[in-house]
Every structure is written in C-alpha cells, then in structure tokens.
Amino acid sequence: MNDMIQTAGHSDQGRVFELAAELFAVLATPMRLRVLSSLCEREKSVNELLAEIDTTQPNLSQHLAVLFRTGVLAKRKEGTQVIYRVQSEKAVALCRSVCTQIAIELDEPGTMAEGQSLTPRLHEGST
C-alpha cells in the first residue's frame, strides 16, 4: 500500500489514508451508489431520481445532501426543482471500476484466481 502513496511525504501518508477513508465512507452506502449510477449519464431532478430509485423522498434527500456536502455532487435550482449532477468524475470512476469488477465476479463465479476477488465472501465454502 505504501507504494501507492510514495509521492506523498512521509508525514502526509496519514492524511492520505484519512481522506481515502472519508471518501470510502461516503461511498459505502448502496443508496449513494445507486444515485451516482443514475447521474452518470446526465443531470437529473430529485423527482427523476425518485422515479428511478426505489426509496422515499426524505431518504433520497438525506443521501443527496451527503454527496453534495462532500463534493461528489453539484446542484442547481431550476424554478422549484433542484437538479443534481456529478461533480467528482474521479469518485464516479472509482465506483464504476469497483462495481463493474463485482458484477463480473457475480456473473462469472469461479473465474478469479484465489486472493484476487473483490468479493471474497462469494467464494467462501467453494474450496
């Protein structure tokens, strides 16, 4: 892991891990991943998001607020509607990479070499 952060000074390594953990905590909720997935193609209003994501308006608003506060999403008002869009393309790329790999593992169980899977729980008991 230290190889990944060699460009950071020794005293900055702790901060790198703290910030990475904060980002992972923001993205660690399935609902927030659904929101990001929905907004990948284009910006959408809260009503459009509600039509696509099975949740309540208060729950969606709570998750949108977290994603906005942390800079993952941006928003604008259009009349009475609030329109959300992806602000952090890198956060979306990270989510897309992980979710794509997990989808492959679900679709093609047993194709990953031992220790290479992102979803080791899927492989428990298969040995």
Order of helices and strands: HHEHHEEH
Mean of pLDDT? 86
Strand order of the largest sheet: 1-3-2
- What kind of sheet is the major sheet? 3 strands, antiparallel
Helix content: 40-55%
Please give the number of β-strands: 3
Radius of gyration: 18 Å
N-to-C terminal Cα separation, in Å? 28 Å
In the predicted model, the low-confidence regions spanning at least 5 consecutive residues are: none
- Which class best fits the helix and strand makeup? mainly alpha
Shape: globular
Beta fraction: 5-15%
Number of helices: 5
Main traits of this protein?
127 residues, mainly alpha, three-stranded antiparallel sheet, 3 strands, 50% helix, globular
What does this structure look like?
This protein is mainly α. It is built from 5 helices and 3 strands; from the N terminus they run ααβααββα. The protein has helices at residues 13-27, 30-39, 46-52, 57-69, 89-107, and strands spanning 44-45, 73-78, 81-86. The chain has a 3-stranded antiparallel β-sheet. Strand 2 and strand 3 (81-86) form a beta hairpin. The longest helix is centred in the C-terminal third of the chain and has 19 residues, at 89-107. It is globular. The protein starts with 12 loop residues before the first helix and ends in a 20-residue tail after the last helix. The model has no long low-confidence stretch (mean pLDDT 86).
Could you give a short description of this structure?
The protein has 127 residues and is mostly helical. Helix content is 50%, strand content 11%. The relative contact order is 0.11.
